[in-house]
Each structure stands twice: as structure tokens, then as C-alpha cells.
Amino acid sequence: MTIKIYNFPRGARGLRAMWVCEEMSLAYDVAKVSFPTDDAYRKMNPMGSVPFLEDGAVAINESVAIMLYLAERYGPTPLLPGRDDPAFARVLQMCVFSEATLGAGLNTLMAAHFVAPEADKRNWSVRATEGRVDQALAYIEHLLGDNAYAAGAAFSLADIAITTALGMRQGALGQAPSPKLGAYRDRMMTRPAYERAKARAAG
Asked: Is 80 exceeded by the pLDDT of residue 1?
């Protein structure tokens, strides 16, 4: 059965899953999901979130879980180093960090920007979250150091995860990354697999 990825048109987190498929040369179909999601979609995925992946008997949400599933299920792949490779732990860390720390903060900031009443758009919680996101970005820049990639010497799932989060911040909130992170993101976006995934995500 072909992998099927459900996503909003141009949804950034779904792009992560498609990018992994493109890097690994995995065949996949894309199903566009409307917003707000309808009853039929929520019957499959009660969270009503995207992306959502179906692969035979497997049906899961959460973009990072989908990335790791694809790498494990259809690997081995250079995107996920072997467990004896010192980079393995860093790849796992940065994939989770991209959502648990950076992505979670971005969710709050996007909700404040697009949905919150005017009086709450710059409240204490929003300002504190901005500080936490800035701290996360500084941490990524620190880890990059002089390396070309987020987990060391080779392109990996970590780069897909982090690049997507940087794109969400700039695309939704209009906040460009630092020159160093911007140059890093630009390099990742020149990969042919990214270009193909972006085209598929746009539909």
C-alpha cells in the first residue's frame, strides 16, 4: 500500500514528511485537507491535526513521529544515523526540540498573532514565549557552530525538522532568522528533494 500523507495546502509540518519521502525515494500520495477539518477526517484522526500518515495498518499524526517512523520503517537511511554513531542522539534531540521547544512556542505566537483579541496579542505570556523562542534559536545557532548541518557533518532528519520550524516562523510571523540561521536554512532549501516536496505540498 502506498504511503498517504494528509496535509493542509502548503502546510509546513506536512512538508517535513514529504521531504523525508523525497530524500528516501519513497512513493507517496498527498491528500489535501480543508480547514476547519470535517467529520470524515476527524473520524480518521480525532485530533483533526496535520500531517496525518496512513501506511497499511499504520495511521499516525505528529510530524516528528512520522519522520522517525519513515526512517526506521524504510531505512536504513543516512537521514538517521546508526545507533552506534555519536550523531544518532543529536538527531533525535533536534527532531524533538524542533517541536517540543521551538514548534510549541511558535504555535502560541501564531495563535496570538492571528486569533487573540487585540488586548492579548502582546500579553505577558506572548512576551515570555517570544523570549523562549529566541533562546531556542540561539541554542540552534550555538549547536551549528562551524558545522554545515544541525547534527554534525551530514544532512539528517534534524535538518529537515529545524529548517521547517525556521520556515514556519518566517512565513507565518514574518520574522527572519539571524544571518547565520538564514544562510543555513537557504542551503537546506536548495536540496532537490526539498524542492520536490515543496511542489507536492503546494499541490
From this structure: no
